[in-house]
Amino acid sequence: MTPRYDDLPVDETLGMRHSWGLLDPNIGTLSHISQDAIVASAATVTLGRAIPLNLSLGEIEPPLFGREQWRHSVHATGRNEFEDVLDSYNPQCSSQWDGFRHVRARERGFYGGITDLESAGDALSIEHLAQRGIVGRGVLLDVAGWAGAQGKQMDPFAGQPIEAETLLEVAATQRVSLRSGDILCIRTGWVAGYRGLTVAERGSPELSTRFIGLRANDDMARFLWDSRAAAVTIDNPGFECLPARPEDGFLHRKLLPMLGFVIGELLDFEVLATVCADIGRYEFQFVAVPLSIPGGLSSPANAIAVL
């Protein structure tokens, strides 16, 4: 049985808990999704409705964090045939998955302690997530919707941290119990806020340095690990909130190289949140197929919710 967070071994160099040797190193927490869990997720499909969870590739413009602008061109290959070409395309410029090659734990390396990717072959490549697929019961934790109903102020651009206890309260309010193998979908309202910005406001460098997100402390890592979630996705640009709190540490480092957590960012939960609120049910079948990039460290989300 997978140990609880407080029973995980502690790396003496970093003073951080890790799951090395406990999960399949190439798919990490996706190991929590059993065949039975996939079959059970189909029972959440009652409306016969599919809701894509991906932003348009051109919606976040200019790209955040100083990433290069991708370019799209169309070329004639014959009298009546045409093809697309994408140049300088960074898979992390829109709805995306973080792979295990994205962040390292300083000198201790990537997930499982791999320090040299050049000699690691295909280890930790995003290809493994693509070959596995991400299918299971999705659960929307609509933090923004919950806060609005409570009369609480949540500014998506103010750097507000979302606490682990808040996620538990949202789940309780929505009357949803978390199960092993769930794909958690956390709506902060950042995408809705971004859509309300002017063109000039979208070009502000502050968008990359200040936004709502998960608090990066051990309480959050403990909640996510002990939930036995297979993956956790969010609608903000960087998963955790920015600016960071030095006393909390870096949640990406805790989750990716130390715990092997599969995480997704910048997903679009706006339509999904409306439908879930209308039917009073926040579970659905979640399906995603990451792009099979040899040696890749990220991928477009390519995600959909089926209700």
Describe this structure in words.
With 307 residues, the chain is of the alpha/beta class. The protein has a single domain, classed as Putative cyclase (Glucose Oxidase, domain 1, 3-Layer(bba) Sandwich), CATH 3.50.30. The chain is built from nine helices and 15 strands. Helix 8 (251-259) links the parallel strand 11 (231-234) and strand 12. It starts with 9 loop residues before the first strand and ends with a strand. The relative contact order is 0.23.
Outline of the structure:
The chain contains nine helices and 15 strands. It has 307 residues and is an alpha/beta fold. It has one domain (5-306): Putative cyclase (Glucose Oxidase, domain 1, 3-Layer(bba) Sandwich), CATH 3.50.30.
Strand content: 15-25%
Give the CATH class. Alpha Beta
- How is the quaternary structure best described? single chain
Q: What gap, in angstroms, lies between the N and C termini?
A: 31 Å
Q: What does the secondary structure layout of this molecule look like, with pairings?
A:
Blueprint: E1 10-11, E2 16-17, H1 35-41, E3 50-52, E4 71-76, E5 82-87, E6 96-98, H2 127-132, E7 134-142, H3 143-150, E8 161-162, H4 164-173, E9 183-187, H5 190-195, H6 199-202, E10 213-214, H7 218-226, E11 231-234, H8 251-259, E12 262-265, H9 270-279, E13 283-288, E14 298-300, E15 303-306
Parallel strand pairs: 7-9, 8-10, 9-11, 11-12
Antiparallel strand pairs: 1-2, 3-15, 4-5, 6-12, 6-14, 7-13, 13-15
Properties at a glance:
9-stranded mixed sheet; 307 residues; two-stranded antiparallel ribbon; 9 helices; globular; 20% strand; 15 strands; alpha/beta
